[in-house]
Amino acid sequence: FDLGNVQYCVSWLKSLDDRLRRSFRCNRLVSEADLIFLPCSWGPYSEEYRPLLDELTRDAIVFGRDRNSVRFLNETLGADRATLCPDLAIMCEPEDPALGRHLLGQLGLSVDQPILGVIPNCRCVEEGITPLSDPAQYYRLLQRAVTWAKDNGYGIVGISHMVGTDRDAKLLKDLAIPVVQSDKPGEVRSVIANLSAAVCSRYHSIVNCLVHGVPPISLGWHPKYSGIMELFGLLDFDHPLERDEGELVARLDTMSATRDELVQHLRMRVPEARSEIRSCMGSMSARIGGASEVLQAPVVVDDRGIDTFLRHRSSRFQRLLRRVKRGA
Asked: I want to staple 204 with a disulfide (CB 3.0 to 4.6 A). Which of 81, 215, 250, 305 is the partner?
């Protein structure tokens, strides 16, 4: 099993080659194992990675969590090797909003008024990562969202979606808005449950908005953002970093005017996505001959955000796992 939401995409281009080679060596150690790549982001790739990708995914079960990822991998290999499966974190049940209301109240915010959440990402200004020639453009986009909220009667709250680290702290501080920072994922998700809308630059903050029926505007630096927005029928609310502030305001206006319809849309689309995940996991279980389940809670919070694991309980898998541990 391999779960890494951006492990094999260009998010970490400098280490992509090493990641592929290390995985290749590990797979050879347990060559009789069924290799399964859980839903993650793939690509885009240059031709030089084709041989490694081909070896890595041959005879494997490969899931891509958006159409971009599936296309990137399949077109690189010239074969239909990847299958679309939404991000497993979609299976997390919504959080009780009561705790979030309390935390917002401590910041002077009340759910009696609409609240816009701003969830930034330091990678949007990191040299070598951001597509922006002028990283200050990202600050201007965030600040424009804050101004829009104030002009339209919204409360505004910044949310650090990076539990256990302050990597996004400077961005939030520069916005000079109330901020929720917590080392407990349940608290972060409960705050999100109380939002009317959100501007999201962390991938799994988008996932958490979707699960809680909160319309998001994605403000990201990688195709994975447009990928998840397309998958949930929200591509009109994907705002690439290079687009100007006027377009962001137009998207915020549209989202505010159509919020009720968008909430209803998410209430239908999220259960559909969960059914798609169950179908993919069922086909996987049938192939490897064992029972599997998707955990129903956010169990890992690190520099990749809130994620879920898949647990497989077959005795054959447990024997292989013990062998790998002994080898390590």
From this structure: 305
Measured on CA atoms in the order 46, 240, 197, 270, is the torsion positive or negative?
negative
Q: Look up residue 142 and give its DSSP letter.
A: H
The tokens for 58 are 């041959």
97-106 vs 185-193: helix crossing angle, rounded to 10: 90
Residue 265 Cα distances to 224, 229, 234, 258, angstroms: 21, 13, 10, 11
Any idea which residue has 């609310």 for tokens? 237
Distances (CA, A) of 46 to 18, 68, 90, 266: 15, 15, 30, 35
- What are the tens digits of pLDDT across the range 88-102? 899 989 999 999 999
Residue position matching structure tokens 């497993």? 88
Distances (CA, A) of 44 to 9, 12, 133, 223: 7, 12, 20, 8
By CB neighbour count within 10 A (0-12 exposed, 13-18 middle, 19+ buried), where does 138 fall?
buried
pLDDT tens track for 175-229: 999 999 888 999 999 999 999 999 999 999 999 999 999 999 999 888 889 999 9
pLDDT digits (tens, 9 = 90+) for 230-272: 999 999 999 999 999 999 999 999 999 999 999 999 999 999 9
